[in-house]
Amino acid sequence: MRRARALFVYALGSLARRGRRSVALALGVALALGLYASALLLADALRAVYRGTLEVAPDLTVQRLVAGRPALIAADALGELEALPGVRSVRPRLWGYLFVEAIEANVVVVAVPSDAPDLRPALAAGSAELRAPAEGPAPALLGSAIAARLALAPGDGLALPDATGELMLLRVAGMLERATASHAADTVLVAETTARRLLGVPAGEVTDLAITLAAPEEAPVIAAEVARRLPMSRVIDRVALERSYALTFDGRAGLVAALFLPMLAALLLMAWDRFSGLGESERREIGVLKAVGWGTSDVLTARLVESLAVTLGGVLLGLLFAYGYVFLLGAPGLQGALFGWSTLSPALRLAPSTSLAQLATLAGLVAGPLVAVALVPAWRAAMLDPDEVLRGG
Amino acid sequence: MPGDTGGSGCYHGAVSLDPAPRRLRAFVAGACALALLTGAAWLHAQARRAEARQAWPAQRAIVRATGLPDLALSSTARWLRHPTQVEPAAAVQDTPGGIDTDPAGALLGPPFGSPAGLGPLP
Amino acid sequence: MAAESEPVAVPPRAAPLAEALGCTDLVKKVRDGSRRVAIVDGVTLSMPPGRLWALEGPSGSGKTTLLLALGGLLAPTSGDVRVAGRSIVGLRDHHRTRWRREKVGFVFQELQLVRGMSLLENVLLPRVPEGGATAEERARALALLARFGLAELAGRVVDRLSGGERQRGALARALLGAPAVLLLDEPTAHVDAENAARIVELLAELKAGESPPAVLVTTHDPRFAEHGAVDRRLSMRDGRLG
């Protein structure tokens, strides 16, 4: 114990004597790891947002394909699907995109059926009542980014271009909660008739069909049955939904990771230089230590402590840096690369969801090679006869 | 103290006779600072998670009402705005059955067990 | 700090040994191209405690190699080395290291001290693997430094010491553990005449102390070899004692 303390104090002294290089190395580790960890934290936080709502998404979505592209589907296909065993309900969905020149952005127009689940938890202001009155403009619920961009409040009017190119006046019935920005920042919720007029969808046709199953685990079987009944169709199950998001963020985070690998390599080279280039002075130091009666294990222990302090300090600093950058600063710069460059960007307050085990693995992957790089040359020098070290052998 | 003879830098001038307490103090101070920051980050993370959980009911209400689970991250191209609903024969799709969410080739092949309906096109 | 935990029984220091340092048929060969050359070629010597011997010889005669082998810093090709009554050749590495730390003081021609550290810290370096210096050892180190005229400099970083001061500092460190054997490699080579004389005097004074070590010094310096305190002059040529 006393030996450990004495070697520890000695190692701290070495650290201080080589202060500038130690700090440079720790900062290098912190920077490289911090960048990578930022991408990881950000991607994981986004996946968490997505997962939080996945369980209320439809079990199956049925699209019709024409010439290999999704096309409108006849609403009467619904009856045939509802009759399938295991299907609890089938909902026709009507939604699409509308380019709004005033804000130079696409908005997503979604029809909310009158029997849709309650929207009130998502409402920030106004009312969720979307049924069109006999007279006057039809009501609409606005996503938070649109409302903010156009500075609209409940009761205001909003003119959107309809399918014939004319402007259709809507009344802002309410605005969605900021917390829903992650899903609906650019969304305009309207009644079905309004949506048909804006999107130009003829009566009797819908965008796609959403199926809820009695037992979600039967999805693959029922999906195959649906595909058999409706030959030109594509069925999306929940596995596909989740995989899309995993792939999206894996892909984008992977690009950042690819940036990180050369950085790590450069860092290892720098560390190798720092520890093995052992300026002759460090080699001689090892020689002196052996000559005054230090054993190889004493030299290596001191060295291990020194390199562990540098790398673990750097690793922890890097993780803290990444945390602050992502969750306090909102990852400026990196956000665009990972989210996509949105015109109506949602203001997100992300929550960390990366597991500690994952971070520890990452830290180990960085710290391990660095410590090895520090130890191997020291071990070689310590194994030499002091004579060879002293003579610069 | 004989060592207090001044000097330019930390390690070229005065050094107290027993450096152990000073070094250990510096180390403990540094370690404590890192530990405090880590603790603060952890607390902040807990608070953020609680906040995120509070946002779930609103988010779920939207997804229930619209049936669309996609995140509003991109308002430009539809395969970016609704990647899960993207057409399987979009220009950027490389592999039949692969969900190619970003326009790029891949080192790895498409995942096994492609979901029903995502098989090769008729 | 002697040898409570040492596995082999050691004669107590109070009882004078007949031999402090010795070797028998010591050979050290090194590879030179495709040949193996004996740098030390069959040296036998036996040195009682409290003596000061000088080892002379031209460069390349094998003096330094012999010294390193005697101090346990270099494994000999064959032959035996005995330090304070114990053969150190067959010892396992960590036993030899420990024996060396307790029984042998070494002063190198160059690079005696670790740069960037204070003089006192340097003197106490051998204590680090034992758990650091005790208050007594610290006092002893300061006393040694005072004896060598370095009291004022104990806290100074060694980079700012003169060559002579460093040489004396290294000597103080070698004596810290009250070794049975003191080995010096050209201690007067890189210091001026005044400092050289001072080092010789210090070594001569050692003989008067309590349980004095056996001191073996390699040197080129006739002033040293002819000093009255030197008990015996060995001369070495081509790896052999002549």
Shape of chain B: elongated
SSE-based structural type of chain A: alpha+beta
Sheet bearing the most strands of chain A, described?
7 strands, mixed
Helix fraction of chain A by DSSP (H/I, runs of at least 4): 40-55%
Number of strands of chain B: 0
Radius of gyration of chain A: 31 Å
Unreliable sequence segments of chain B? 1-15, 114-122
**How much strand content do the residues of chain B show?**
under 5%
The ordered H/E elements of chain B are: HH
| Count of discrete alpha- or pi-helical segments spanning 4 or more residues of chain A | 13
Uncertain ranges of chain A: none
Task: Give the % helix of chain B.
Answer: 40-55%
**Major sheet size, sense and barrel closure of chain B:** none
Task: Tell me how many strands of chain A there are.
Answer: 14
Helix/strand order of chain A: HHEEEHEEEEEHEEHEHEEHEHHHHHH
Summarize the largest interface: chains and residue counts.
A-B, 99 and 64 residues
The gross shape of chain A turns out to be elongated
Tally of alpha and pi helices of chain B: 2
Please state the CA-atom Rg of chain B, rounded to the nearest Å. Answer: 29 Å
Oligomeric state of the chains present here? heterotrimer
Structural account:
The complex is a heterotrimer of chains A (393), B (122) and C (242). Chain A has 13 helices and 14 strands. Chain A has helices at 2-17, 19-54, 77-82, 144-150, 181-184, 192-199, 219-229, 238-276, 279-291, 296-328, 334-339, 356-383, 386-390, and strands at residues 60-66, 69-71, 73-74, 87-93, 95-100, 105-111, 123-126, 138-142, 157-161, 167-176, 187-190, 205-206, 208-213, 233-237. Chain B is elongated. The termini of chain B are far apart. Mean pLDDT of chain B is 70; it is low at 1-15 and 114-122. In chain C, a hairpin with a 2-residue loop joins strand 1 and strand 2. Classes of the chains: A alpha+beta (393), B mainly alpha (122), C alpha/beta (242). The interface between A and B is large, with 99 and 64 residues.
